[in-house]
Fold:
Amino acid sequence: MRRSEKQTQESRSTITRRGLMLGAAQAAIVATLGLRMRKMQLEQADEYRLLAEGNSVKIRLIPPARGLIHDRNGTIIAGNEQNYRVTITREDAGDVEQLLADLRRLIAITDEEAAEVLAEIKRRPPHAPVTVADRLSWEEFSRVAVNAPALPGVTPDVGLSRLYPQRGDFAHVIGYVGPVSDYDLSQIADPDPLLRIPKFQLGKLGVEAKLEDDLRGHAGQRRVEVNSAGREMRELDRREGDPGVNLQLTLDYRLQNFAHQRLGEESAAAVVMDVTNGDILAITSAPSFDPNLFVRGISSADYRTLTSDDHRPLADKTVQGLYPPGSTFKMVTVLAALEGGVIGPEETVYCPGHIEMGGRRFHCWKRVGHGRVNVVQSLEQSCDVFYYEVAQKIGIDKIAEMARKLGLGTRHDLPMSAVAEGIAPTKAWKQERYGKEWRIGDTINSSIGQGYVLASPLQLAVMTSRIATGRAIKPRLILSRDGVEEPLAEAPPLDLQPGWLEQVRRGMDAVINGSRGTARGSRIVAAEWRMAGKTGTSQVRSAVVDNKEVPWEQRDHALFVCYAPADNPKYAVALIVEHGGGGSAAAAPIARDIMLFALNNGLPPLAAYPTEQRGTIKTRLDEMQLIDPETVTTSGKSRA
Structure:
């Protein structure tokens, strides 16, 4: 059937349009390919020529700068320093043993270190770089960099390493970082890729460990071109990571340094709190250690020295250490008795020097007795019999309830390692723990801070702050994060009658300033800094012994708590000297010096001390090597 001329024309038009569309599409494809070929041949010719010769593009993580830690004045107490290091990547290295031998001609690597590197290279994936040497001098680093073309798989690198400029002053509270271990990785469900970077530093203890996620920051990335020999040819792209959060602690580096030095060679701990807001101004455990030793991995010899010391320098006695609080617990017992109505403020108890109970004699520290004493006098003279008697009337559960109200038997929320809960025992607690009934003798022992009662110096500082203010003060260690101040915890009233607290405060004032006070020798004579406190001595052995007659580790612990000024409290101090003997002789003088430093914001004037003590005290203070604030910058390093 023949088409009409009209149909033929329509068919020709359709074919023409299709041809045009197809031609346009083909032209577009050809043009695109042409432009792409032009870009590859002209603009990217060098890159593709290198790739053709065996080069490849790899992604490298950029470790972020670890967050800095400052004291409340802005002085750095944990910072970063440049670290020159050399790494080997097995997949690019070829003969690793030969490569390591070549490296040893350039830098000092011991046989032991070389063996460790080879073992580490075998454990790691082929693409993972392994650190061969770090903390190199500039000369060593330069020698490796110059010879890098002849060292396939070897990468000279500049990173950051942690530095603690104040050394042992903050070791227990800040802690330290160290290289990530296989054990560390096994404890993390989904490890950050940063943790697999060779010798990457991870918080191991203290604030460094508890706030690791904040301090670590987030990794950056760089795309690098490496040739067939494993040498980096050029950097193609870089995206910087986010540095860690900068922390400001409530601690005062000068007060911390003074407290640490004042504890001297004792096995001891001290905590200083601002009673108005709970800020911890100093928290130090002695003896201490240099956390810089742990940053690179401490040697076996150094570690043995620390672990074999009977004064336990690695233990943080301020929050981990639990001790019978001794007579510093008497404020708890008397407040429970006053609140429970079993004794009035002027009611007296007769102390003949002991009481008989269940065929057992419980002695007062003063064997001839104190006679009749009321609440204030019982604290001033630390009469044990007074507390034996009132404790039997109020019972252990009420005493434990008061202890927890004052901050004992409670784990306080601080970013420090192994913060202990302590023990404020009850009848149910003993039944659950030991499967035994509570006995009246347990109550008698607990009333004077012995028996099952255990508290840390931090808890005793909280207790003292709450007694001084009548408010539920909570300890605070972090002042701000990246310049944003942390909110203060609410400190509501303790729900105790002000009159009962006033009785206890009068008793604590008399301990130091009364004519028969157990700590009168450690009083502050400057009226504006008048101090109130309480001594304590806790037995280590069940038998009463003369501390001079037994070895050091069997002597009693010495304790002291105080606050000042007595009429307008600002600071509280809690202190323990392990195996120091009596609290009045061993602990009170140290606490008094620390309190005076806090009150004066520096070395106190001799006029604050009793006249007869000034010569001895001047000699002691002159011998201390204190930090001069004029020589310390906000970088934490001394000016030249």
